[in-house]
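Reopening this ticket.

The earlier resolution said the output was attached, but the attachment link was broken on my side. Pasting everything inline this time so it's all in one place.
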Amino acid sequence: MIDFFIQAYTEIAYLFNKDPLGQTFWLIAMVIWISGFLVHNDRTTVKIFIVSCIFWILHFVFLENIGALIATSIWLVRLVLSLKYQKNISIFVGIIAVSAAYGIYSFDGKIISVLPLIATAVSSYGFFFLEKIRLRMLLGIVSLLWLTYHLNTGSISGIMNEIIV
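Inline output:
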């Protein structure tokens, strides 16, 4: 276990040295995202997640990760639409269709790459149809899906983010 933390620290130090601005945006995004879980009002929580999402987008811009940038942009649109069109089945299905199309487009042949698509569908359902503790519990399950994905792809920042969430 100590080896994991040493490796994580070494990897994070390397990533910060390689791209300090991009990694700073990751830290800001993570702190804002976590603070969203601490708010009791669902609309405020989603608004906090929207701000976090903007920092995630900046993170991916500086890392030049186009795939994650597109996925996060879809995530941002989904959050905004969930505020305006709560419980709207048509908008929800549209978001799922766009997410599925992007998932199919970006599929890399590895079964593990399906987890983000599943996580997106599950969290979309939560943002459109659940409230309060049920929403947060569902987001906990989504976090486990992302943790599994990050563990299998070796994303130290993703692993840290999901462990903290």
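Reporter confirms the inline version is readable. The two ends are 20 Å apart (CA to CA). The chain has a mean pLDDT of 86.
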